[in-house]
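Lab meeting, item 3. Inverse folding demo.
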């Protein structure tokens, strides 16, 4: 696990965008795993800027989103279909047939989840997975206690997660209790994972993920086992790390041949 600490979320997001762009340059037909929520917004904006200003080409890219609320129509203002269209897909040239987002209206959820796993497999697996971190350490919607070997499935959200996400629902709309999410076993099979976490509210979850024991109680800690996991943080999110100064020193003093941006 490589921990990259930068002063601001904007700077960390720019580094993340350069890593995604490098992946696409090296493999134009990359399979990207995508996250939603406020954390990756700056990353998606920077990728869109690279597309319009520098010609970063997404035409051969395939994407799989981590999750979606069960019961929300794709047109619902809080759906992740809507989020991805507004924040990313409308601004780059990924063909619609290459975009995969879990169907929150699937009638047979277990069968749908099996089909989603098969689609990832048939695409060759995920080359680079973008992740956010919940304030309780969850990845995707894999709440604390989720099996470390879990696959795409239905999950029941904790009240903490529902409260954290309530800001995306307006006019008295209730946050759904259930979601479809990629499992931890699915996520860990990605060839590279980029975990982004910003703000003081994420500091304890970051510390438990990076420096705590690997445990289902902190799903993000599973990334300690990943051979190519990069954790990108702003100063506030890194504020509870005991080895923060060492992580900064390592990043600032890489040998030239190891610099990968």
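The presenter then showed the designed sequence:
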């Amino acid at each position: 696990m490589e921990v990259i600490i930068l002063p601001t979320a904007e700077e960390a997001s720019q580094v993340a965008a350069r890593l995604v762009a490098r992946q696409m340059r090296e493999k134009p037909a990359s399979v990207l795993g995508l996250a939603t929520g406020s954390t990756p917004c700056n990353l998606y904006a920077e990728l869109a800027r690279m597309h319009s200003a520098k010609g970063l080409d997404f035409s051969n890219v395939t994407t799989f989103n981590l999750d979606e609320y069960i019961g929300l129509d794709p047109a619902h203002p809080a759906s992740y279909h809507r989020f991805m269209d507004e924040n990313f897909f409308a601004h780059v040239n990924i063909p619609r047939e290459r975009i995969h987002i879990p169907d929150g209206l699937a009638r047979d959820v277990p069968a749908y989840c099996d089909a989603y796993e098969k689609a990832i497999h048939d695409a060759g697996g995920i080359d680079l997975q973008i992740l956010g971190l919940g304030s309780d350490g969850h990845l995707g919607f894999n709440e604390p206690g989720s099996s470390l070997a879990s696959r795409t499935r239905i999950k029941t959200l904790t009240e903490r997660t529902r409260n954290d996400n309530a800001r995306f629902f307006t006019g008295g709309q209730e946050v759904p209790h259930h979601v479809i999410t990629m499992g931890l076993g699915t996520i860990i099979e990605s060839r590279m994972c980029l975990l982004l976490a910003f703000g003081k509210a994420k500091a304890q979850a970051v510390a438990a993920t990076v420096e705590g024991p690997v445990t289902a109680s902190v799903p993000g800690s599973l990334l300690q086992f990943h051979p190519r996991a990069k954790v990108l943080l702003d100063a506030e999110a890194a504020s509870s790390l005991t080895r923060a100064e060492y992580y900064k020193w390592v990043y600032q003093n890489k040998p030239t041949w190891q610099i990968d941006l």
